[in-house]
Design goal:
Length: 718
Amino acid sequence: MKFTNGYWLTKPEYQINHPEESFTAKKDDQRTMSVFAPYKRINNRGDELNIGMTTIKLTSPLEDVIGVKLTHFDQDTHGPSFKLTDQQPNVTMNVGDQAATYQSGRLQVNIPLHQEFALSFNADGKEITASRYRAQGEITNIKNHKHYMREQLSLGVDSHVYGLGERFGNFVKNGQEVRTINKDGGTGSDQAYKNVPFYITDDGYGVFVNQPEPVDFEIASENVDRVQFSVEGEFLEYFVIYGPTPQEILHKYTELTGKIQLPPAWSFGLWLTTSFLTDYSEKTVMKFINGMAERHIPLDVFHFDCFWQRDFEWSNLTWNNDEFPDPEGLIKEIHDKGIKVCVWINPYIAQKSEMFKEGKANGYLVKRTDGNVWQWDLWQAGNGFIDFTNPAAVKWFQAKLKALLDMGVDCFKADFGERIPMDDAVYFDGSDPKREHNFYTYQYNKAVFDVIAKERGIDQAVVFARSATVGSQQLPVHWGGDCLSTFKSMSNTLHGGLSFLSSGFGFWSHDIGGFEDGPDTPTADLYKRWTQFGLLFSHSRYHGSDVYRVPWNFDDEAVENTRKYVDLKLSLMPYLYTQAAHSAAFGNPLMRPMWFEFGADYNTHTIANQYMFGSQILVAPVFNPEGNVHFYLPAGKWTSIVQDGESYDIPEGGKWLTKHYDELNLPVLVRDNTILVKHEKPAHADYDYTKDVDIHLYDMHEGTTTISVVDNHGKDHR
């Protein structure tokens, strides 16, 4: 949201008050400090009258993390709030005549007193960012009387900003306007399913805005020197997180907002779905599963999409017995082949279903202010929304899911959760609908994840979720939503994934081949290229709208291509699951932007069409039918693991290459000084990663290099 007209003027509908000075500061207790910043310079006692003031509270929940809360009027909020950890680190506070300082670990904020207002954040001897004079704002819209709080944090000359959730435009966020409000907008717009008010910079710090309601970010856009963020209301809280490396920033962010959960090993294998609008029954499902086996393509999960339920009754969590007369028998038959079962769900309950009648009668659905259930016809006729602020509603929903788990279902595709009402909405616990909107997805997916964890054990718990917010990294795994079947959308998908994974998440997936069909039904070449890309991500799923995604529906080479890359991924599971366990423990993504690993090489800081698969493997997908790839190799020796004999020695400075690859190959390169543990031709993703493996050494350096392998139960073997 922009409040100004250029650099000098304010838009006529807004009145902006700025802290002009920090008048006083005081230690509240051993860990917090308050700073009082009036909207006028105080030269005499008369200046203290008839003016407003921002109270600035400084806290530190973790070492190297400082929280700043700006309050105009001290008013209560009505939940929910993000769940944050407070490790109560030691802090140092000093209040003098001319300045105050607050320090946690290596991060310090300096506040001049009785001078031009500023907050300067310093670490390791330098300023990393600052709230400069007139950056903060207490703002009133004089036309509609809405109130806002604003902050602006400075950017360095060469600073890049990343993150803010899953965003499918430019990976670098400089110059963009971002509103963090979850919406069901597909992958081809500025809307996003997964909004996270956290950004990370390549200047050694990140910023988390602790507001569950929509936050408006202007990233070097309204003021090109600063990142601006604002919310409607009377207060604004944010945390500056010092790294200085991106790995350290994300580790501290996830320590603050919730540690990443490691998914079960089997979930890393290939998922195959019925697709969405296709006709399917028990016969169709087994035809596809047997077809994969006949073609020697390992399969780990089969997913039943929406029409496993009856028409107009989604999501009633009840099988359509016309198409699936014996679901327990079908699930057992699938299990006997070593394959897990996933079924589609969402939290919207159609009026035609018995579940709607139960929910309405017991007060389990979100209501309007007139006491009626909040309903509309978008998606399913007359659907209502489960009210996850009601503990009884959560237990009711989980009991329905438990019945499916008892039947043999292993996990759920937790779809939707974005179109949650903010207007004329009443929640059981009185939550503010604006604060509940984004947080709803966390409550929804937690209810699903928790019942799986309770029934199967935490090490077997996994959901396939579309929506997310702060803290959802504890509830893996997420996928990218409804992408188009085009090469450009495939590229956009990677941008969205890297953006999401820069926002505190460890694992991510997408619809291989693209979801939307119709005129954009995937061509055979797109299907093959997306298969390669999709199987070189943490989680891999074939899915589409009205076309089946089995490879033999395209051509014989598509079958060979799928087999090759499923086999490659499964062979790499000792490496991938070890890297995944490290990701979960330290808050880092399994797939990561190039600059995470090569930050000293400035060329990597804007690269978004290639990525690191763990710390040692580089992947550059093919985004065109011609098979041409323009990719960058940082300095070092690089060796292909998909094309024998392909290697590159980049002595220094890094190098851009343009290469052509046939439809069975792409750049998948291992960096030097790598020990890669592999198992050739495993049948599934879940096997003993410490037995019957081959050890591959890649251009080892002098000295000692060691590797530990995590087995399929997360145990470390050295």
